[in-house]
Amino acid sequence: MPKPKVSIPYLDPNVQHVGISRLRALNVTQLAELDKTLVIQDNDKPLAVLLRYEHFLAMQELINAHD
Fold this sequence. Notes:
Elements: E1 15-19, H1 20-25, H2 28-32, E2 37-42, E3 45-50, H3 53-65
Parallel strand pairs: 1-2
Antiparallel strand pairs: 2-3
């Protein structure tokens, strides 16, 4: 009988879960200095992910490298 696969979630310390009000409170300077990835949520339900554009481009390069 095969062993069931157990998945362990990867916890990134650079990811911060925040509410919509935190997103609304950010100004251009704060966004430019952002060093964390934000998971925007409402009522504990994730809605979107906000990350630095450079990180987004790096992710795109990795995806394209695997194609």
